[in-house]
Amino acid sequence: MATYKEIRGTNIEVLASDPSNPVEGQVWFNSTDNVLKGRSSNPAGSWSTANSLNNARGGLEGAGTTTAAIVFGGEPYSADTEIWNGTNWTEVNNINVARAHMGAAGIYTAALGFGGLTDPSPQPTINISLTELWNGTNWTEVNDMNTARYSPKGAGTQTAALATSGVVHGAGVSNTNETWNGTNWTEVNDLNTSRTEGGAFGTNTASLFAGGSSGATSYTNTESWNGSNWTEVNDLATARGVLGGSGIQTSGIVYGGNKPPPVGALTEQWNGTNWTEVADLNTARQRMASAGTTNAAALAAGGFAPPGSGATEEFVSPLESTVTFTDS
Question: For the segment 80-115, what is each residue's pLDDT rounded down to a tens digit?
Fold first, then answer.
C-alpha cells in the first residue's frame, strides 16, 4: 500500500490551525486540537433527511427553494397547503378545490397551481382546468387553462409560467403547452414527443422537460424550451416517469420516479449539456413535490413510496468538508 508521502509527495504537516484553503486529499495534524484532520469531498452530493410533512400524501405539487417552499393538494384528494421554512412544515390556508396531480410554478409567497384531478367519488374522475393563485395567505381562483388536464408540469413564476404536457381524461397523454401571463393562458407549440409527468424546471421562456411516461412506456427524452419551440437535447441515462425536477434550464436535477416498476430513488444532474447520475434519494418514491433553483440544491417532499409518504429530503452538491480522523 502506498504511503501518504508517496501519494502526495510530502509528509503529513503539523499545523497549529487548519489551513485556510485545504485541497481534496490533504491531511494534516492540528497540534492545537491534538487531532489528525483531512479534506474530503463528495462530488456526487447527497440527500439528507429533514422533518416530514404534517400530512403524508402523494400526487402533490410544490414551488420555491430549499429554505422557503410551498406544497399543496395530493392524494387522498386534499386541499391541504403547507409551507417550509428550511426546518419545519406549517399548515396554512387550503386551496379552494381539493385535488391531486396539478402543475405548479412560483415561490412560497406567490405560487400558481393549475389543472389536476378532483375526487372520483361519487362520479368518475375528471380532469379540470382550474387555476389558483397563492398570495402568501390565501388562494384565489383565476382564469382557467384552455385544455383541462391532470399531471401537467409547470415552470416559471406566478405571473409568467409554462404548463407542459399532461393527461386529458378519456383522450390520453397530451403534448399541449400553454403559457401564463398573470391573467390568461395561451396555447403555444407542443412538445416533440408526447408524454407526461417528466421532470420540469426553469422559466416560461427557458425550461427543460426530461423523461416522462405514456402508459407503460417510460422515456429518456429531454427537451429544451426557448420561449417559442422545443428542441431535443441529450437524453437521461435512465428512462422513467413521475419524477421530480428542480433547477434552471442550464443547471437542473431530476429524482425518483417509476421505471416502471418499482418506484426509484435515482438522481441525475444536468449541466446544460449532459446528465450525470449522482446520489440516490433515501426514500424511493414518485409523484412528489419539488422545489429548488439549481442542480446543487433541491427539495423533495411527499410522494408515493407507496403508500403516501411525508418524507422530506434536501440535496446539496458538491460537498467539501474538513473531517477528523479517529482510530475507530
Answer: 999 999 999 999 999 999 999 999 999 999 999 999
The tally of domains found in the chain comes to 2
With residue 4 as reference, give the H or E element that holds it.
helix 4-8
- Beta-carbon contacts of 134 under 8 Å, excluding residues fewer than 6 positions away, are 70, 72, 81, 106, 109, 110, 111, 112, 113, 158
Question: For residue 82, which of 56, 54, 106 has the smallest C-alpha distance?
Answer: 54
Q: How far apart are CA 162 and CA 152, in angstroms?
A: 10
Cell digits of residue 322: 474538513
pLDDT of residue 328: 46
Q: How far apart are the C-alpha atoms of 125 and 143, rounded to whole Å?
A: 22
Grid cell, residue 97, equals: 378545490
- With beta carbons less than 8 A apart as the criterion, state whether 299 and 61 touch: no
Say if 323 falls within a structural domain. no
Q: Which three cell numbers stand for residue 216?
A: 407503460
Same domain membership, residue 165 and residue 239 = yes
Report the alpha-carbon distance of residue 24 to residue 41 in Å, rounded.
Answer: 6
Q: What is the dihedral of CA 78, 187, 257, 275, to 10 degrees?
A: -140
108: containing domain: 46-316
Q: Which long-range contacts (CB under 8 A, 24 or more apart) does 76-81 make?
A: 76/308, 77/117, 77/118, 77/119, 77/120, 80/54, 80/55, 81/134, 81/139
Q: Which three cell numbers stand for residue 149?
A: 388536464
End-to-end CA distance of the chain: 20
- Cβ atoms of 288 and 295 within 8 Å: the answer is no
